[in-house]
């Protein structure tokens, strides 16, 4: 799942402030989904700023 939908889902997962959906969980999810690490780190940072 390396399409655009996976990256948008990662951004929303980290960006919505719910318990258990933070940066650590987002990077773990990106690792399980085998997303590109550079793109996922940028999106996790954007999600943290968004939250």
Describe this structure in words.
- This protein is an all-alpha fold.
- The mean pLDDT is 90.
- The longest helix is centred in the last third of the chain and has 14 residues.
- It is 71% helix and 0% strand.
- It has one domain.
- The protein is built from three helices and no strands.
Proportion of helical residues: over 70%
Mean pLDDT over all positions: 90
Proportion of strand residues? under 5%
Query: How would you sum up the global shape?
Result: globular
Features:
51 residues, mainly alpha, 3 helices, globular
A few lines on this structure:
With 51 residues, the chain is mostly helical.
Helices, strands, pairings?
Elements: H1 4-15, H2 23-32, H3 37-50
Helix pairs in contact: 1-2, 1-3, 2-3
